[in-house]
Design a protein that fits this description.
This protein is an alpha/beta fold. It is 52% helix and 11% strand. Helix 1 packs across helix 3, helix 6 packs antiparallel against helix 7 and helix 6 packs across helix 10.
């Protein structure tokens, strides 16, 4: 069962996780991407997500158990904090090095929490749309358009003129084609 939550629910979960990690003497690093980061930046029109996707290598078994425990206590999915994206072909190796990670506003003792910057998030969504092939996920296309608009990119000409986004045309040709064929952004 999907348990969609807004930003406050995940912030509560992260605070609880931080306290539980302290009692275990554990410390983790989180490189967040996806819907949670959209919420964090206040640019997702949905207002919810079911998890925090990360480009973080697999946590040890104790940490995974504590993540599931927090999820159960707060009514979230057991993998509300997951690194599934890090296991997808090319995601960790290709994206992690090309994303500028910004320290999140949170003050944790046992969690180093980073979020992908806006251009990094566009890169993540461009890869997701490209990898989606002929029928990319609607969530990825919608999120990418929201991120582009947040950066004042409202059509293919503006995309072509923004050097920061040249990777879309150069690396993710299916994403570029999708955007180029779109009449109304």
């Amino acid at each position: 069962m999907l348990k969609e939550k807004g930003l406050p629910a995940f912030e509560e979960a992260l605070n609880m996780l931080d306290k539980k990690l302290e009692s275990l003497g554990e410390h983790i690093v989180i490189h967040a991407i996806g819907g949670f980061v959209m919420l964090y930046y206040g640019i997702d029109d949905h207002g919810y997500t079911i998890d925090i996707d990360t480009l973080t290598k697999r946590y040890n078994d104790k940490v995974i158990e504590v993540i599931a425990e927090v999820g159960k206590e707060l009514g979230l999915e057991s993998d509300w904090l997951n690194n599934d994206c890090a296991t997808l072909p090319g995601f960790l190796k290709e994206l992690d090095a090309n994303i500028k990670w910004e320290r999140a506003k949170y003050d944790f003792n046992n969690i180093e929490f980073y979020v992908a910057d806006y251009i990094g998030m566009i890169r993540v969504k461009a890869k997701a749309v490209h990898d989606g092939g002929l029928v990319p996920r609607k969530t990825d296309t919608t999120d990418m358009l929201l991120l582009l608009k947040t950066n004042n990119i409202n059509n293919i000409e503006e995309l072509d003129n923004d050097e920061r986004l040249s990777f879309i045309k150069n690396k993710y040709n299916r994403t570029y084609k999708f955007l180029a064929e779109m009449k109304d952004w």
